[in-house]
Design a protein that fits this description.
By secondary structure, this protein is an all-alpha fold. It folds into two domains: about 35 residues, no CATH class; about 80 residues, no CATH class. It has five helices and two strands, in the order E-H-E-H-H-H-H. A two-stranded antiparallel ribbon has the order 1-2. It is elongated. The mean pLDDT is about 80.
């Protein structure tokens, strides 16, 4: 929600959220959006910090935490070495980034940095001569 300021000099709405004339904020005829030059002079509310995930691969504890939070289903993609398991997962991830896929939407992830790292070389934007997918290290299996 964009901050509002009052056009009346004596009004304290910007500080306490109360209209000097007693109007409810959306009904006050004196409220307006601040001009760009006025934004820095508005009172700043308390800083809010959001704990963002690092985006790397999950370890067993991280996976257990997610699966324990709500009903979860696990899909295992398994195959011989170099049979394309990671490439398949990367292709599905790319499809979800384009638009709804098979009537499903991408809902979020705590491992996007790792997924982007694995997917990047398979894309034209990587500048690679041939598409390639970073292999899953044996230590992650």
């Amino acid at each position: 929600m964009e901050p509002l300021i009052c056009t009346k000099q004596e009004c304290t709405f910007a500080k306490d959220g109360k209209c000097i004339d007693g109007y409810a904020p959306p009904d006050c005829p004196n409220l307006r959006a601040p001009f760009e030059s006025e934004v820095s002079s508005l009172p700043v509310s308390e800083e809010v910090y959001i704990d963002l995930p690092l985006g790397e691969e999950l370890d067993l504890n991280g996976a257990a935490e997610i699966m324990g939070a709500s009903l979860s289903r696990v899909i295992v993609v398994a195959g011989d070495v170099n049979s394309g398991e990671t490439t398949l997962i990367a292709a599905l991830y790319d499809k979800f980034n384009e638009a709804p896929f098979a009537n499903y939407l991408f809902a979020g992830s705590k491992t996007l940095v790792a997924m982007e790292r694995r997917s990047h070389l398979a894309r034209l934007t990587s500048g690679a001569l041939r598409p390639n997918t970073e292999r899953t290290p044996v230590t992650n299996i």
